[in-house]
Write a structure and sequence with these properties.
Keywords: Membrane, Transmembrane, Transmembrane helix. There is one protein chain. By secondary structure, this protein is an all-alpha fold. The chain has a domain of 50 residues. 67% of the residues lie in helices and 0% in strands. The N and C termini lie far apart (73 Å).
Length: 92
C-alpha cells in the first residue's frame, strides 16, 4: 500500500508542477473517462434497484398507454394573439 501511496504522491507533485494548460489537459483526460464510468455504473445500479422494487417505467407502460403516447398532440393556438402583428421599433 505504501508503494501505491508513494506513486500517487509523485504523480500529484508532477501534475501540480506543470503549467496551467498541460495541467488542465492531464486532469481533463483523467477525469472525463472516470466521470463517465461512475455515471454509467450509478445508472446501472439504480436501474437494477428500481427493477427489484418494481418501480421501472417499462413495467408500468401498458398497451393503452403506448397507444395514447403514439397519438400526435393537437397544436393549440392562442386566440388572444391571433390577430396581432409584430411591433416595429423604427430603428434603422
Amino acid at each position: 500500500m505504501h508503494r501505491v501511496a508513494g506513486w500517487w504522491d509523485g504523480f500529484e507533485l508532477w501534475v501540480a508542477g506543470l503549467p496551467f494548460i498541460p495541467q488542465f489537459l492531464v486532469v481533463l483526460v483523467g477525469m472525463v473517462p472516470v466521470s463517465f464510468a461512475i455515471a454509467y455504473l450509478l445508472d446501472r445500479a439504480l436501474r437494477a434497484a428500481l427493477q427489484l422494487l418494481g418501480r421501472d417505467r417499462a413495467a408500468e407502460l401498458t398497451v393503452a398507454d403506448a397507444a395514447i403516447l403514439a397519438e400526435p398532440s393537437p397544436v393549440l393556438v392562442d386566440d388572444r394573439t391571433a390577430g396581432r402583428s409584430p411591433v416595429q421599433t423604427g430603428a434603422r
